[in-house]
Amino acid sequence: MTTTVEDEARRLRDQLAEQLEADGHLKDPAWRAAFRAVPRHPFVPEFWQLTDGELRHITSRDPGWLEAAYCDDALATQIIDGVATSSSTAPGLMAAMLDALDVADGMRVLEIATGTGYNAALLAERLGGGNVVSVEVDPALADLAAERLRGCGYTPTVLAGDGRGGHPLGAPYDRLIATCGFSSVPYPWVEQVRPGGVIVCPVGWGTVRLVVGDDGTAEGHFLPTGSYFMAVRDAGTTGAAQHPGRPTDTDERAADLDLAAPASCESFRFLMSLVVPGVSIASEQDDTGAFRAVELWGRDGSWGRAENGTVRQAGPRRLWDMVEEAHAVYEEHGHPGRERFGLTVTADRQHAWLDSPDGPQWHLPR
Questions:
Q1: What is the spatial distance between Cα 153 and Cα 159, in angstroms, rounded to a whole number?
Q2: What one-character DSSP code corresponds to residue 201?
Q3: Which one of the listed residues 60, 86, 183, 264 is annotated catalytic?
């Protein structure tokens, strides 16, 4: 008997669901059933993978395409000016975020960043297409996702627009999930989710789960897993911070921080993403693998570089000062993981905190 693409895809998604369950990502039987039912490959007929330092374009005509589509990996699905601007999230992270939504039958969900449409398909499989609204900033991607969703038999509402404003015409929602990166949580979302409802959103290099209160605030902890989403963007842009070049007019002082902390300490780099939001980081190593320089830069033109025991900084924010102050807190509190951090969002301000809302705090941009 000849094995068809659909037969093989069914086998692969069963295998993927089993892997996600074994890894602890699929705890709810309803989500396990959704991952088994929803095909991923129609949503990623082409993608890019980083191989030996180069982006390799893979299409459905290439050997191994189907297997790659069902790996627990993120797949870049759109490239602008050499920068990936849309992707299909790694299924393990998708499952963890969907589980954190804590949905029940009949609930209405607003999704921010449709992307390929695969996550919207999982939501529609679990809750019914009539209970899912998805907003995508790129009109072309929105149209393509809607077409692929219909082809798989799913009919959520897919809208082109800036998801930072949510979709007030459909409010109130029971749940909201975002699948692109933010430096803070847009307050319109809090206004559009009912009291007691849940918002799951990537903030910095983590994912926060917020519960909306009766008083118009939202608060909650970060999930323990890492979360590296592409930054929210305007249509046609990359969302990445452009390097300002090496400023000549800089402040200089001695460096007090081991470069390994900002360069490679994963848990501290998460804290950095909250303390210096919207900042890109690059590091350089010598022949022995030791870090010899770390450079930071932000969209606002702030820049800092530590090298040879000296820090040079320029721009409106002194990035390295902020990083060193955060590292002192990180050391004092025993190298905390993501799950010890939380976020409080109000109409006027929002701040990340450690261990409790009254603990050490860092204000996030509005």
A1: 18
A2: E
A3: 86
